[in-house]
Write a structure and sequence with these properties.
This protein is of the alpha/beta class. Helices cover about 40% and strands about 15% of the residues. Bound molecules: pyridoxal-5'-phosphate.
């Protein structure tokens, strides 16, 4: 059994992550200074009480990567009552047949894991069924920067095609950025993480091809063990779970 974190610990962890983000942001190369990185608190497998505690300490963006768990949490009466400004990020693999479970959820902010034209097209088609016609669904394109077979995401050389599709064929979607998970346990003593270099390169290509300002396209990269390094490499959206909420128990 893993000990449940006390509320005070979770709050202190959050504050320490904020401080580390601020410090890493100040130390970034000048070219990245214009954008403040956003913290995504990844609450998967963690109880509603922890989410409320972290929300009350001022955190607004939360990430989940299992569909049913996000459904349960986003519709939880206590969360609806106490966390009115919560912003949910879906960061797991999204199957086409689960789209209609996710899209109606209150306070859904973004799907970070779009990795095919088919998925983009279905999201684009379904979104108006759940929201006003003038609202757009935020999406990121997930890229498999490490080329590992078990990882989801498109290949880096496919990003301009999928970006083209989202930008030009999906009027109900708003392209918010690019996301990668990358290789686990990369040893930083070998130099800058190649996954982060790759994701930034993808963004530069997309920005150049479609005449976008880089500040308008987020880079979602960096987790508990490397978020400061990711910020140094240009990340604008770090996804931190364990360092805030403590170690997770394995799902069966
Ligand atoms: C679980 C998860 C995280 C958080 O990982 P930690 O190492 O606990 O910070 C970030 N991104 C994704 C996609 C995840 O599934």
């Amino acid at each position: 059994m893993i000990k449940k974190m006390t509320e005070a610990t979770v709050r202190e962890n959050l504050k320490s992550v904020w401080q580390r983000i601020e410090k890493a942001s100040k130390e970034r190369p000048a070219e990245f200074q214009d954008v403040t990185p956003r913290l995504l608190a990844v609450s998967k497998t963690k109880p509603v009480e922890d989410i409320i505690e972290v929300y009350n300490a001022g955190q607004r963006h939360f990430g989940e990567n299992y569909v049913q768990e996000l459904v349960d949490k986003a519709t939880n009466p206590e969360i609806l009552e106490k966390c009115k400004e919560i912003r949910w990020h879906f960061i797991g693999h999204l199957q086409n047949n689960k789209i209609n479970k996710i899209l109606p959820l209150p306070n859904l902010y973004i799907i970070e894991t779009v990795d095919s034209e088919k998925l983009a097209s279905k999201l684009n088609q379904s979104w108006p069924n759940f929201r006003n016609s003038d609202s757009k669904l935020n999406v990121m394109i997930q890229i498999n920067t490490s080329g590992e077979e078990e990882k989801n995401g498109i290949k880096p050389d496919e990003v301009t095609n999928l970006a083209d599709f989202v930008l030009n064929q999906c009027p109900n979607l708003r392209l918010d950025g690019l996301m990668t998970i990358g290789m686990f346990g990369y040893d930083l003593s070998n130099g800058p993480n190649p996954d982060f270099i790759c994701l930034k390169k993808c963004r530069d290509e997309v920005c150049e091809k479609f005449k976008l300002d880089w500040k308008d396209l987020n880079l979602s990269m960096g987790m508990s063990n490397d978020f400061e390094h990711a910020i140094a490499m240009g990340s604008t959206n770090v996804r931190v779970g364990t360092t805030i909420f403590g170690v997770r128990q394995k799902k069966n």
